[in-house]
Amino acid sequence: MSGHVTISALDIADARAIAAMNVRNRADIERVSPPQPADAYSEAAQVARISSILRECAQGLRAHWTILVDEALAGDISLHRIYRGPVQSANVGYMVDAPFRGRGVATAALRLVAARSFTHLRLHRLDAEAMPSNVASLRVLEKAGFTRVGVMRGYLFVRASWEDHIHYELVGPDFVPPST
Ligand SMILES: CC(C)(COP(=O)(O)OP(=O)(O)OC[C@H]1O[C@@H](n2cnc3c(N)ncnc32)[C@H](O)[C@@H]1OP(=O)(O)O)[C@@H](O)C(=O)NCCC(=O)NCCS
């Protein structure tokens, strides 16, 4: 691994840099994501998207970080569908800017998020899914200690069809959840 990987809480001031990063990685994002509106890659759309994400973060429904390598923006990583009560789980997703790939950045960021999930965020499990064709993402999950659970048939509508995904999980330490 070359460079020091850190994660930083998403900020509205990141919108311009994230918009530019998403434009650079558009083909890769579209290969693994549901269809987006035509203007989704504009800076204005990113401001709106990040504002919405930050509202959900403030409500405790998700958490989102930028990934930095030696202070330079290199990607983003998020927890969504944060469920509390007796479940205490979240779903994780990530993207690394193409010039930073293949040097352990996603794996390092995912390990940081997992550690934070099981300490500060008091979660009990993380789930993640990747398409069978997304070999890099499957490898990231395995390197970060996630366990393959099985195939989710037609889990997500990607581009023009419902795509199977491999479901992974990482279970944290046991604790007694707060009563609801
Ligand atoms: C998936 C993604 C986040 C990986 O980021 P990254 O920083 O390059 O990941 P890492 O360097 O930590 O690990 C990648 C691993 O996959 C391996 N890999 C990458 N492409 C591969 C391929 N085509 N075949 C086999 N292995 C491959 C790398 O060799 C590395 O494994 P290694 O350390 O054992 O050599 C990045 O490719 C990306 O952002 N893709 C587009 C968005 C995406 O797919 N997000 C995930 C949605 S589930």
Automatic annotation (TrEMBL):
<dbReference type="GO" id="GO:0008999">
    <property type="term" value="F:protein-N-terminal-alanine acetyltransferase activity"/>
</dbReference>
<dbReference type="Pfam" id="PF13302">
    <property type="entry name" value="Acetyltransf_3"/>
</dbReference>
<protein>
    <submittedName>
        <fullName>GNAT family N-acetyltransferase</fullName>
    </submittedName>
</protein>
<keyword id="KW-0808">Transferase</keyword>
<comment type="similarity">
    <text>Belongs to the acetyltransferase family. RimJ subfamily.</text>
</comment>
<keyword id="KW-0012">Acyltransferase</keyword>
<dbReference type="InterPro" id="IPR051531">
    <property type="entry name" value="N-acetyltransferase"/>
</dbReference>
<dbReference type="InterPro" id="IPR016181">
    <property type="entry name" value="Acyl_CoA_acyltransferase"/>
</dbReference>
<dbReference type="InterPro" id="IPR000182">
    <property type="entry name" value="GNAT_dom"/>
</dbReference>
<feature type="domain" description="N-acetyltransferase">
    <location>
        <begin position="5"/>
        <end position="173"/>
    </location>
</feature>
<dbReference type="GO" id="GO:0005737">
    <property type="term" value="C:cytoplasm"/>
</dbReference>
